[in-house]
Design a protein that fits this description.
Blueprint lengths: L1 E12 L4 E3 H6 L5 H7 L3 E3 L6 H16 L8 E5 L11 H9 L5 E5 L5 H15 L6 E7 L20 E9 L11 E10 L26 H12 L1 H22 L9 E5 L5 H13 L6 E2 L12 H10 L12 E8 L3 E9 L1
Parallel strand pairs: 4-5, 4-6, 9-10, 9-11
Antiparallel strand pairs: 1-7, 1-8, 2-3, 6-7, 8-12, 11-12
Length: 348
C-alpha cells in the first residue's frame, strides 16, 4: 500500500512507577535464566489509572505536538490487547470523548499486539479514501494488572509493561504542510497467517466467560500445547520468514534497497534479547544491512503500543534515534493471530 504524503505526530504516556527486573528476580517472580534471556531493566506499572485513562493522556500529548484541534479529527481508532476496565463497554468512545474529539467516529481495534499497526493502517486507508476529511487519532493502551495478569510470568519470553501511545495521522499536499517534528510515512505493509491463531487458544473448548480456565491469563498453557504439536523451530522459522517478507515489501514500497544508506535503523518489537537474537535479528538481516535496535529496556512489551512507542522515539526532540530530514527508519510490529506490520518513515 503506497501511502503518499501521510504524516504522523506520535507520543506516549508511561506511568512514573516502575518495577525493576532485579527486584522481580529477588522476589522469585522470574528466574536468572529468564532475566538473562530478556535483558530488560524495568517495567512501568500503572497504579491509579486504567488503560483508557492513560490513552487520553497520550492523545492530548499527540494533539499538542501536531498542533491539531481535537474538534477537527474525523476518526479515533483505539487499540488494546487486555482488559480496559469494564466488561461490556467501548473504550474507543471514552478515549474520543476524553480527547475532545466529539465529532470523530470512534472505533475499537482488536488485533492483539499488532493493534497499533492495524489502527494505523485503517487511518491511512481512511485518509487515502477521503483526502478532504480531517486527520485521524490512533491510540493504544494496556494495563497488565494482577490478579488477572502476571506481567512477569504469564507468557514465555515476554515481560509486559503498562502505558499508552498515540499519534495524530494526517495528509499533506506539500512537504511544508507537514507539522514540525512529525514523521512522514513512506510505506506501510501488513501480512497475516490466520492459522496460527491456535497458539493462543485452548484447542479443546471455548469458554463461556473470562478467566473460566484459570484465575489469571495463562499464555504459557496454550503456547506449550501449540509448540508441542507444531514444533518450536518450525514456528520460529515461520516468524522469521514472515518478518522478512513484510520488511522487504515495505522497503520496496519506500524505494529503499537492501543496502540503502538512508535507512538508519530497524526498530524491533519489545520482546527481549533472546527473541531479537533468534527471530528478528536473522529476519532483518535477510532484508537489509541496516542495524537493529530494541528499545524495550525501560518499558518491556507495551501490548498494542510497541510500534507507536518506537515511532515516538524516532520523532522525539533530542533522542538518540531521532530522524533528521531525509533519514529513514523501519519499525516492525507483530501480534498473536498472527499478524506482522512494517512501517517505513522518514524525518520531515
Amino acid at each position: 500500500m503506497n501511502t503518499g504524503l501521510i504524516w504522523l505526530s506520535p507520543a506516549q504516556w508511561l506511568p512514573p512507577t516502575v518495577h525493576k527486573a532485579a527486584d522481580a528476580l529477588a522476589d522469585g517472580l522470574v528466574t536468572a535464566a529468564e532475566a538473562e534471556a530478556m535483558g530488560y531493566d524495568r517495567l512501568p506499572v500503572a497504579t491509579g489509572l486504567s488503560a483508557p485513562q492513560m490513552a487520553v493522556r497520550a492523545a492530548h500529548r499527540a494533539l499538542d505536538l501536531a498542533g491539531t484541534d481535537a474538534a477537527d479529527l474525523s476518526a479515533v481508532l483505539h487499540a488494546w490487547t487486555y482488559y480496559q476496565g469494564h466488561d461490556f463497554w467501548s473504550p474507543a468512545h471514552y478515549v474520543a470523548a476524553g480527547a475532545g474529539a466529539r465529532r470523530a467516529v470512534p472505533t475499537g481495534v482488536q488485533q492483539m499486539c499488532n493493534g497499533s499497526g492495524a489502527a494505523l493502517r485503517s487511518a491511512v486507508q481512511q485518509l487515502t479514501a477521503d483526502p478532504f476529511g480531517g486527520p485521524a487519532l490512533v491510540t493504544t493502551a494496556d494495563r497488565f494488572a494482577a490478579p488477572g495478569f502476571d506481567r512477569w510470568g504469564g507468557d514465555y519470553g515476554v515481560w509486559y509493561g503498562d502505558g499508552a501511545t498515540a499519534a495524530v495521522v494526517g495528509r499533506a499536499d506539500e512537504p511544508h504542510d507537514v507539522p514540525e517534528g512529525a514523521l512522514v510515512l513512506r510505506s506501510l505493509r501488513t501480512l497475516a497467517e490466520p492459522d496460527l491463531e491456535i497458539a493462543h487458544r485452548d484447542p479443546d473448548t471455548f469458554h463461556p466467560a473470562p478467566h473460566t480456565a484459570s484465575a489469571a491469563v495463562d499464555v504459557r498453557r496454550t503456547k506449550k500445547t501449540f509448540l508441542a504439536a507444531r514444533g518450536k523451530e518450525a514456528f520460529l522459522g515461520r516468524l522469521r520468514q514472515r518478518t522478512t517478507e513484510v520488511l522487504v515489501a515495505a522497503l520496496a514500497d519506500a524505494g529503499l534497497g537492501p543496502r540503502d544508506e538512508r535507512l538508519r535503523v530497524v526498530l524491533l518489537p519489545r520482546l527481549g534479547r533472546a527473541t531479537a537474537r533468534d527471530v528478528y535479528g536473522p529476519a532483518v538481516a535477510d532484508a537489509t544491512a541496516a542495524p537493529t535496535a530494541d528499545l524495550g529496556e525501560h518499558t518491556g512489551h507495551l501490548g498494542a503500543g510497541d510500534l507507536l512507542s518506537n515511532l515516538t522515539a524516532l520523532a522525539a526532540g533530542a533522542g538518540p534515534h531521532r530522524l533528521g530530514p531525509g533519514e529513514h527508519a523501519a519499525v516492525l510490529s507483530a501480534g498473536a493471530g498472527f499478524t506482522w506490520t512494517a512501517a517505513v518513515v522518514c524525518g520531515a
